[in-house]
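Researcher: Quick sanity check before group meeting.
Model: Go ahead. Protein one:
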Amino acid sequence: MIDQSPAGLLPEAVDGATEPLRHEPLLVGVLGVRGGSTSTHWATCLAWTIAEQARVMLVDYDMEGGTIADLLGIAAESKSIGNIMGAAVGTAALEAQAVRLEKRPSLRVVPGLWSAYGAEVAYDLPLLRQPLLGLPEDVVVVDLGHPVSHAGIREPKRIAETICQVFSRVFVVMRDTPELASRAINVLELAEFPFAEIVVCTERHRSLTKEIHQRICGRLGQFRSIASGWDWDEKRASRMGDNTIPFSLKGVPEQLGLIGVRR
């Protein structure tokens, strides 16, 4: 079960009730600060891992066009978040775009856009909040692409504020390559997220990762925490693309406080 109560776990019943309490899903936004930051892979693997223990919806909301369906080998056909983009729709319309994974039945996926769209995708994000909250899943993971650094974005701070209004948890994924991390830090300073958490994917020597953590702490003090989210391996990522099976981020959902197991 999912940890959504201040004290820890969601209670199953109150005052002798036998039915579980109806609760809204935890909304998790995942983004990068440039293309190739591995945020889509991380979001997909995170949803896959949480779905080992809970019901999860994974939504591809990348304005550059969706790739999650390809990563998971989904024949999306006519289903796409683009079918309801920019409209005030209900949860049923959103669910109509979802595909359930046979290889992980507790995970449903809403495929992404068929082609790249403009910056208006980010501004339409608040329209998605209520449909997401109406879903029966325990956790909803939304891959946002790189919305605060897109070429069409002129107000990164406004986009950052919008993201934080929609999601309870926001994760910014970056790789520990120094030149990529430097640009990421510059972008995040401009965006001024009200809250967010940085996930550093370890690709180089761990001493570089430590150095990048220090730079982040020195310049981005408003971020709630910094976590080492996984060891990035290009060959392993390629295998994921070939066999359409994500790899499990063992221990990461628990480390980030996204899962609580009822005793």
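Researcher: Fine. The other one?
Model: Protein two, sequence then structure:
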Amino acid sequence: MSEQNPYQAPQKASELQGYQEIVTLSRRGRLGRLRYFVYLAVANFITGVGVFLGGSTKEEFDLFARQGIDIPVMIFLILMLVAAITCLVIGIILIYVTVAKRLQDFNIHGAFGIAWLVVGILLPPIGMILSLMMGILPGSKGENKFGLPPYPNSTEIKVTGALIIIVMVLSVIGFLGLVLSMIMGAQYEFNGFMR
């Protein structure tokens, strides 16, 4: 018969079931493959919004620098720039937390997520390959030094993950179709020129 300490804090229901509770904005814990893809897509979307706002703001600043300054418009542009920087910072933090948790599912310390971010920023093709590998390879089974296995995916995560994967596949097909049409168009122009 096992003895329980009456002064021990009660365990959470998820720990009683053999799974670790997922805390979204904490680096603690582990993250499964599908949830990794979903969280990374959301973080990349937020970062993309920041890049879009920042690029739009730069164009508008350049335009008003040539034409003169309108104070209400300048205040709006400054607010857009603040929103862009905020989105970028939040997106990068979310990407780091997501990568750190996924690395911990492989029993690798999450601090290596910073190296992953640097490689992803400086060498985007390698960063994409690393992201894909982290999403495809299974993590360690059972408990590891970073805790219990991640909680199983909910229906919402499964549907969102399936939609994200479908959009990714369609994007790759569209990109390949664009490249192929450019190659075929260039070949057609070349053949027409040579006649």
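Researcher: One line on it for the slide.
Model: The mean pLDDT is 82.
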